[in-house]
Design a protein that fits this description.
Blueprint (H helix, E strand, L loop, with lengths): L1 H27 L9 E7 L3 E3 L2 E3 L3 E8 L3 H31 L7 H17 L4 H60 L7 H18 L2 E4 L5 E5 L2 E5 L2 E2 L2 E5 L15 E5 L11 H36 L3 E2 L8 E2 L22 H5 L17 H8 L7 E4 L5 E4 L1 H41 L3 H34 L2
Antiparallel strand pairs: 1-4, 2-3, 5-6, 6-7, 7-8, 9-10, 11-12, 13-14
């Protein structure tokens, strides 16, 4: 009997020692990112059947489980996908909004007001050279602002494209790591044990993928996981299919070079566009393919129609050398461009004649009226003329307005999109944090709870030592009878 007690006490000591070691591991990793709380599952040993019944033989650790809930993981990753997408769009749209910097005394709104005002001043003094110099300066300022906006949009596109390339590289790298972890987990668990540490590491990688690319995870019976992106498989077992970034260059090429060429994401050897995409990846692609081209296209339409409207009126006027009549027919105020190089926000500039000589600026529409100011008044009147800008989107939606109204509408639209993205980022981040808190309530380590568990297991360990003392006393009593 004493030998049976010693055996049971021995298994109890070893088992509770393992339980304490598991608890110690939890406490040690309480602040380790991605660590899931572990629990030693204690199971009674197989009893020995006697003539009078079954006799217990002690306890052992059947397995050490990882406290993890797949449904909570899925919930967190879905919320993280939305948060990642909204936060990325907020950041990128904030950068696009900063290009225009409106309202501002140095922005396009102020420059257009100053331009129309300079024509009003010229109408008040149609023979003034200094008034013409001011008109020349204001016109050059408007053209330079268009050029600057286009340059900054190009810089934003280049930096966003570089970010997309880095994001695609990150997705490919993480996917390859998940595939490698699948292999290691399947190999290490072939004997029936669970490799908790490798599974934690893989879950961290899957969390990263969900935020960046909006992936979905499908557990497999052999311990590996499949990862879906869009409607396609990114990771299957030990194989990861790489993403590639392609520019959708039109065929045939348009007559004028495109400033913005759409990008698309392809998976593996497929030539089709990967769809749908989510997470940060989706927001980057949307800004590259929709928001930046939309802003540039509106600016191009405004610049071209602005130059055309001013030139149309200006070419009906006359310039004079002193009071000599008749006057000389005026030329274009802005460079009119060509078929292969039309006027855009990037190319708009003053006509070379006007740029070199302010006396080439007309104020009169009467060849025999050097003091006539009707042309200057007409150009000043463009300030209040409606429907001077017409823009049609690729989907057929038309926007119209005065030059200043159209520009303000464009900037307001970008501001509204940025504000909406900011609000969405706040909401979705809160949802993601709440989902993570629910997940951590299951898998996170509470040091207070672990210390309580340690005290409980320690008491069981001490009780096992007393069992050994009791068995020893019984053995000593038995020996003393011999």
């Amino acid at each position: 009997m004493s030998s049976g007690l010693l055996s049971i006490a021995r298994t109890a000591l070893l088992t509770h020692q393992s339980a304490i070691q598991t608890i110690s591991q939890n406490i040690a990793n309480a602040e380790t990112p991605g660590y899931s709380r572990q629990e030693a599952v204690l199971v009674a040993n197989t009893p020995v059947r006697m003539s009078y019944g079954n006799v217990g033989t002690g306890v052992h650790v059947e397995t050490i489980i990882r406290k993890r809930d797949i449904l909570l993981d899925d919930s967190y990753r879905s919320a993280s996908t939305l948060a990642g997408s909204a936060e990325m769009r907020r950041d990128l749209m904030g950068q696009v909004e900063s290009v225009f910097g409106e309202p501002s005394d140095a922005g396009m709104g102020s420059a257009l007001d100053a331009f129309w005002g300079s024509w009003s001043d010229l109408a008040a003094s149609p023979g003034s050279v200094s008034a013409r110099a001011v008109v020349q300066q204001r016109g050059r300022q408007v053209a330079q602002l268009f050029n600057e906006y286009d340059t900054q949009l190009t810089q934003q596109r280049n930096s966003t494209l570089e970010r997309l390339q880095n994001t695609v590289s990150s997705i490919n790298s993480i996917a390859a790591q998940v595939a490698e972890l699948n292999t290691r987990i399947v190999t290490s668990e072939s004997n029936g044990d669970t490799n908790n540490e490798l599974r934690d590491l893989r879950d961290m990688k899957l969390d990263e993928l969900s935020k960046i690319a909006g992936t979905r995870v499908v557990p497999q019976s052999n311990g590996s996981t499949s990862v879906l992106i869009g409607n396609s498989t990114l990771v299957q077992g030990d194989t990861a299919r790489p993403l590639t970034l392609k520019l959708e260059v039109p065929n045939p090429m348009p007559a004028t070079p495109l400033a913005d060429v759409n990008v698309r994401i392809q998976l593996g050897t497929s030539l089709d566009r990967l769809a749908p995409v989510a997470g940060e990846l989706a927001s980057i692609v949307e800004v590259l393919n929709v928001d930046i081209p939309g802003a540039r296209s509106r600016l191009d339409a405004m610049a071209a129609q602005f130059a055309t409207a001013v030139n149309t009126i200006h070419t009906t006027g006359y310039t004079f050398s002193g009071n000599t009549v008749p006057g000389t027919a005026a030329g274009n105020f802005f460079d009119a461009g060509t078929v292969s190089n039309p006027v855009t926000a990037a190319t708009i500039r003053m006509d070379s004649a006007v740029l070199n000589d302010p006396l080439k600026i007309a104020a009169s529409s009467n060849a025999n009226g050097p003091t006539d100011n009707s042309l200057a008044q007409s150009l000043a009147g463009l300030r209040l003329t409606d429907n001077t800008v017409n823009w049609t989107s690729s989907t057929g939606v038309t926007e119209t307005g005065s030059f200043l109204g159209f520009f303000r509408s464009m900037v307001t639209r970008i501001g509204i999109d940025t504000a909406a993205a900011t609000d969405n980022a706040t909401v979705y981040r809160n949802l993601a944090d709440q989902s993570d808190a629910r997940r951590q309530s299951v898998s996170g380590v509470s040091t207070d709870e672990e210390l309580v568990n340690m005290m409980r297991v320690q008491q069981s360990y001490q009780a096992a030592t007393k069992m050994i003392k009791a068995a020893d006393d019984m053995m000593q009593t038995l020996l003393s009878l011999v």
